[in-house]
Design brief:
This protein has about 120 residues and is mostly beta strands. Helices cover about 0% and strands about 55% of the residues. It has strands at about 5, 10, 20-25, 35-40, 45-50, 55-60, 65-70, 75-80, 90-100, 105-110, 115. Strands 2, 4, 5, 6, 9, 10 and 11 form a seven-stranded mixed beta sheet that branches. Strands 1-3-8-7 form a four-stranded antiparallel beta sheet, with no helix packed on it. Strand 5 (about 45-50) and strand 6 form a beta hairpin.
């Protein structure tokens, strides 16, 4: 069974930094895309950053210039370096791995890691 496990969340002051990690186990394939999402209370899960195996990246406008995504394709591992954190970045961050199958994309999710930005 494929599992994604996040780590690295925590409490940080505004202007601080955190690095999230997501490790995959149980897979015999490489995710086409891996990334990070967050879900504000009462809202839909929203994209933070994604990265394709080609190296192409996609960032939410609110995090451009502050967050950097990277991945190790061979290990199906993805990271998110978050700098200059703001209180509005407070949320649960979910790791995503997307596999492309003949029938369409299949998404796998981690359990989430809490990031709290507060003084």
């Amino acid at each position: 069974q494929v599992q994604l496990v996040e780590s690295g969340g925590g409490l940080v002051q505004p202007g601080g930094a955190l690095r999230l990690s997501c490790v995959t186990s149980g897979s015999d394939f490489t995710f086409a895309t891996m990334g990070w999402y967050r879900q504000p209370p009462g809202n839909r899960r929203e994209l933070v950053a994604t990265m394709h195996t080609s190296g192409n990246t996609n960032y939410a406008d609110s995090v451009k210039g502050r967050f950097t995504i990277s991945r190790d394709n061979a290990k199906n591992t993805v990271y998110l370096q978050m700098n200059n954190l703001k209180p509005e970045d407070t949320d649960v961050y979910y790791c995503n791995g997307r596999r492309m199958e003949w029938s369409g994309p299949v998404d796998y999710w981690g359990q989430g890691t809490q990031v709290t930005v507060s003084s």
